[in-house]
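Q: Two folds, back to back.
A: First:
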Amino acid sequence: MKILFPEPGDVEQFVHQRLGSPMRQHVRYYQRLRAFLRQHHATTDPAEAAFVFMPMNLVLFQFCNVHDVLLEGRLPDPYPVVERMFEQYPGKRLLLFTSADCGQRRRSRWESKALHRAYPHLYRWLDERVILIAFESTADLLPSDIGAIPYVFEIVPPPVPFWHALLGRSPHPIERDLLYAFAGAMAYQDLPPDHIRGERLLEIAGRGQDWFVGSAPEARKRYGKVHGSDIGMLRRARFTLCPAGYGRWSFRFFQALVYGSIPVLLADGYRLPFSERIPWQELAIVHPESKLADVDEMLRNMPQETIQRFQVALEANRHHFLEPGALRLIEESLETRQGATAF
C-alpha cells in the first residue's frame, strides 16, 4: 500500500498553528498518524499511490470560530485545499483525519447544536472520494470510513512513595476501593437538558463509601491530588462511567480500558470501532442512556466471576488502545480499502 503525502499549504498551516495550543491533543494525534503512515507507506509517485493523505485535521477548521480565528469573517472551509487535491490527483481516494465530532457529511441527531460548534453548512466535497478517519464512530460515517481509536499515548505509572523510591521497593498493587466512578465535567451549558451531559448525568451525582460521580475538582478534594486525579480515579474504580460528551466518543472510555477499569459506555449511537478485531462484549458494558438510574443496581448485582473475566480480557487486549496498536488497526483497515481507488 502506497500513500502520497502533500505538504500543507498556507491555509492548513495557519489553522494548525493558531489552534495548536488549545487543541494540543488533537494536533498531536494528526501528526503521529501522519508520521506513522508516512514512515511505512510513503511514495512520491502518484501512479502507484492508493491514497492521498490530506495535510490537515478537519476538526481544527471546525473550531476556528471557537477561538475567534476567522478567515474573511466566516468559518474557514477547507474546500479550496480539497479541490486542489482532487484536481492534482484525479481518481485517487483522499484520506482525511478528523479527531472530534464531524457533522458535515450529513445532518445527524448527534450533531451538537451549540452556537460555537454547529456547522453552518454541509461540505459539498465530502463524498465517497474521501475516506474519513474519525473518532466520531457513528452510523453517520460511510462504510468506507474508519472509526478510529483515540488511543492513550503512554501509560502513566502509579506514584511511588518517596521512601519506596529511596529503598528501591515497588509500590503495592493497586487496590480498587471504588465500585464505580466518574470524575469530570458533569454538564455543559450549551447542551440541551435531555442530553446526558446537559443535565441528565446530574441525576446520579453524589458519592458514597464505594462510589463517586462528580466533578474533577470534587474528586481531588475528596481523595487528594494523586488518588483523585483523572488517572488516579481510573486506577481505583472497578467500573468507570463513560458518558458521551459533545460527540459520542470520549477519551475516558479508552483510558479506562488501558488502566484496567471496566468502562460503562453511556453514549447511545456510538459504534464501537474495529469490532471484527476487538471483542468488545468481553471488555465493556454498553448501557442505554434511558436507563441511567439503573447503573448502580446493575453493577452491584454483577457476579464476581463476570468482573474477573472482564479484568482478564482488559489485560489481554489493552495493546489495541495504546498508540502502536491503534495505529496498526488504522493501517490494516486502509489496506483492505486500497483496491477501490477509482470512481
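A: Second:
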Amino acid sequence: MNTFFIGNEMFVRLGFFLGIFFFMAAWEMAAPRRVLQQKKFIRWANNLVLTFFNTFLLRLVFPAAAVGTALLTGEKGWGLLNAIPLPQWMAGLASIIILDLAIYVQHVVFHKVALFWRLHRMHHIDLDIDVTTGARFHPVEIIISMALKMGVVAALGAPAWSVVAFEVLLNATSMFNHSNISMNLRADRWIRRFIVTPDMHRVHHSVLIRETDSNYGFNLSWWDRLFATYRDQPAAGHTAMKLGLANYRDPKWLKLGWMLLVPASRYKR
C-alpha cells in the first residue's frame, strides 16, 4: 500500500485535492458562514489559476520535491530517524508531527521577517476567505516553502509515505480551515482541540494586526496554545469582522497581475 501511494504521489494528492475542494465548495454554498464582500467568480478564477500555476512551477523547479528527498534519505540512511531504531509507523507519525511544527514556525517567520512578509501578505490581501484562499500563495513563497520542507525532511530522514500523508493532510486542512462554512459551535470547540477549524483560522485573516498575529497553525491546533499565539475569537465577531489588510482594500488586488506584484508594493500592511 505504501509503495502504491509513493509511486502515485501526484495522482493521490490531486485526487484528495479535488475531492476535498468540491466537498468544501458545496458546503460553502449550502451553509456559508459569512456573506462574501466580493464577486466569487473573480476571486475563484484568479486564486485557482494561481494554484495550478504554483503546482506546475513546483514540479518544474523541484521535480522530486519532498517525497523524492525522503526516498533519497531513506536509501542513503541519512537523517535523525534513520539513525534511531523505530518502527516505521512511529517514525512516520513523528515525522508528520514535526513537519507540522515546522510549518507553524515557518508561518510565524513569514509574518515577522519583513522580506518574507512581502511575499506572504499576498495570501492575506483577499477581502474574503473561502476554500480557494487555502492555496493562494505567491509563487516565490511556494518555492521557498518547499525548499525549507525538503530540508526538514532530509534532516529528519522522514519515511516517504509519511511525507505523502503530510502533504495530503496539509492541503486538506488548509482548504478546510479557510472555508466559508457554518459549523455547529459545540463541534467547533471539540474539533479545534486537535485541528484548526475555519472559525479559529479566520481570526488570523482579520484586518486587525493583533488578530492577524495569532492562530498561525494550519493543521494541528496545539502549537498556537503551546507558544501563546492562540486567540479564541475575533473582537468584532465572525460575521462583522473585516478581513484582509488595511492598505489593500482596492479590488484591483484580487486580480492575478496585481496579486503577483504585492511583494513590490510600498505598503507594509
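Q: And?
A: Residues 2-264 form one domain.
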